[in-house]
Structure formats: structure tokens, C-alpha cells
Amino acid sequence: RKKRVGTRVCKPKLKRSISNLYNFTTEMFALGLAPSSKVLSFTTVHPPVKIAQTLHLAPGESAFRIERLRMADGEPLLMETAYIPTRICPQLSREQLNDSLYATIRECSGSSPLEAVEIYEAITLSKRDAELLHMRAGEAGFRIQRISKNTAGEIFEYCVELARGDRNKFQIVLKSTGIQYSRVL
């Protein structure tokens, strides 16, 4: 409710558990929503130096740069930009990106995602990002940086997700024996 603007009914936030390794497709199905993706770009690149180092790329080695809008029941929830070394899944195609990327990588490489490190940061959305997420520039969001490792021990993904602040609520379960966390400054 805002003075001189009126009352606006908001959709409920999606309570997303982040205490286990997850992927968007599986998570949306578990919430009873229909996941989908819109591929914004799919290119082969030589990523920026820091990303190449994170992915342990050899000099000159390339990676796929995948930018997708992730939706639930047709509503955009996340915009993700992922880098996947081309050696992990050399035949990856744009058409395969409409479904679960993790399932596709599992089929291509024979290894599954094992663990990921994520860093969460509160942000305000830029004009471009807000438009893609059907929001207004300057509204709240989350920036999630994810580095994923597979069962072969390789880092196979560097990803940055921008999540809508009005539709996402994250839950972390802390146990004395279960979760590692550290403060990132």
C-alpha cells in the first residue's frame, strides 16, 4: 500500500530451499510450477580472465556463454548468465537450453553436478535487467554467483543469476554438522 498510489496485491514469494544442491527445473516442478527458459544468447567465447581462471581453462580454451531468462508458469523469475567449458559438452546446442542444462550436461559428459558454492548479494536492478524480469529499474533483487563442480572433480559452471526480490525468498537450514558458510566482504 502506498500513499497516493493505491493498494497493490503481490503474488506470494516462492520459498526456495538452498540447503541442498538444486537446479531450477527440478525446484519449480517441486513447487508445482511449470518451468521454462527463453534463451537470450548462446555463444562460444574466451571468457574474461577471472572466469577463465575459475573454470581452470587453459590459455586459448573456450567456453559457452549462455544467457537465459528462467520462468515459472510463464513469469520471469531469474536471468542467468552461465559459462560452461566447451570441453565438458562440446556438442551443446541452443535447442538443448530450453530444458535443464544440468540434465543435458549429465548426458553429454557422463558426470553429474556434485557441489556448488554460491554467494548471495542484495542489489537494485538495472533498467535492462528489470525490463527482462518485468520489473522497474531500481527495484530489489538478488545477485547469485554460483561455481559448480561435478562428480569428475571438474569445475563445470560459473554462473551469475539475477533473481527478482519480490518473488524469491531463500531458506537455509543450518545444522551443527551440516552446512559450511563464511562471510564474504
Features:
185 residues; alpha+beta; 4 helices
Molecular structure report:
Helices cover 15% and strands 39% of the residues. The chain has 185 residues and is an alpha+beta fold. The strands form two sheets. Strands 2-3-4-7-6-5 form a six-stranded antiparallel sheet. A two-stranded parallel sheet has the order 1-8. Strand 6 (140-150) and strand 7 form a beta hairpin. The longest helix has 9 residues, at 101-109.
SSE diagram, text form:
Blueprint: E1 14-17, H1 24-30, E2 35-45, H2 49-54, E3 63-72, E4 75-85, H3 101-109, E5 113-124, H4 127-132, E6 140-150, E7 155-164, E8 168-171
Parallel strand pairs: 1-8
Antiparallel strand pairs: 2-3, 3-4, 4-7, 5-6, 6-7
User: Quick check: average pLDDT?
Assistant: 86
Number of DSSP E strands: 8
Distance between the termini: 34 Å
Structural class by helix and strand composition: alpha+beta
Q: Looking at the structure, what is the overall shape?
A: globular
Q: Approximately how much beta-strand content do the residues carry?
A: 35-45%
Strand arrangement in the largest pleated sheet: 2-3-4-7-6-5
Which segments are poorly predicted (pLDDT under 50) over 5 or more consecutive residues?
A: none
